Fold Imidazolonepropionase.
Amino acid sequence: MKNIFILLLVFCLSIITRAQQTPAPKQSKSVLILNGTAHIGNGTVLENSAIGFKDGKITLVADARLIRLAEGAYDVTIDASGQQVYPGFIAPNSTLGLVEIDAVKSSDDEEEIGSINPHVRAIIAYSADSKVIETVRPNGVLMAQITPRGGRISGTSSIVQLDAWNWKDAVIKENDGIHLNFPSSFSRSGSWFEPGTIENNKDYVKQISEITAFLANAKAYLSDNSKERNLIFEATKGLFDGNQTLFIHANEEKQIIDAVQLAKENGIKKVAIIGGYEAYKTAALLQKNNVGVLLKRVHDMPENDDQDVDLPYKNAKLLTDKGVLVGLENSGDHERMNTRNLPFLAGTCAAYGLDKEQALQLITFNTAKILGIDKQCGTLEEGKDATLFISDGDALDMRTNKLTKAFIQGRAISLETHQSQLNNRYKEKYNQN
């Protein structure tokens, strides 16, 4: 019996560790994309564009009708007539590369033991060989914030590009922020098929006091030059000097108000809300304190009986109209597999109030600003990473988003997946090519 178990384990590991498409080599030839409709990512659209990039960086963004280029200025020219050019989409608060198969424990490394883990770095558990990663790129998702789960303070996230040999190759920004799961002011019983009751969380004040005490102790440690090292306290340094963001996972109105107040009182310079289901009720507070929101998955039902049935769809519009910086995240059931649907979440926001370019910003420029990587990516602008793609149609519409080419830091990446290979295999078998 033991031998059978070992054989099954080896078989599962052989499946989950099988490498995805080979990472593309470093860009060696300069590329010019001509005549496509370029969606810059900041609200601007160039109907007849010229997008050039060399050595992984964008060197030209212009109206193709208004410029003249010397012959041979770029090694490769791509005619994108009738096509759309977009900056690569960014998936924040993601566990891509941390879990391969939920039912296989040895492939699950998204959560650490313990409650207070600011020193736990998700990036060192990130597997660039994950088979799930290659399934999100054909829809334009080319970057992700790799984020731990569990506990009160889950740990530290990092931002990666999704075509790499290992985590060191993948990193765009290492240790960008620490993730705090803020206590809920309510406790719920029951399940999705048998609704229970909602009660006040009797330990709410105590739980907040524990967070405050931890932050106070960490600040005291950092200012004391103690001879005894405390790695947990040391990991919080970036919160107080402004090098890291405190990402607070909270959905309720009271949670969000108390979370922002706690951060202010403890001298934390950069704060963002993840989830933010009732953030529209606190928009003035968020806008005043420059707190961005990464909204929870919008393809969802209302949480309470007295809420509009389309509230999840129009939440981004409500916050945007009130001056809050908004991005989209996709955590929840089957989060990793559903990451491919990130652009279509933005498309739903466009259908419920935002214009298409505002909706595009939810998964490009706005998210880049909230994550602190907007100087490097998030828009098609000179000097930024050449992480972009070309689509036959509207990238926010699942009916027409069909990528023809994609580039990460100037490297032409493969858009093949295990699914597309199977599709081609059986088309050939049944003579459907």
About this structure: Confidence is low (pLDDT under 50) at residues 5-11, 13-17. The chain has two domains: 22-88+378-415, 89-377. Residues 89-377 form a domain with the TIM Barrel fold (CATH 3.20.20.140).
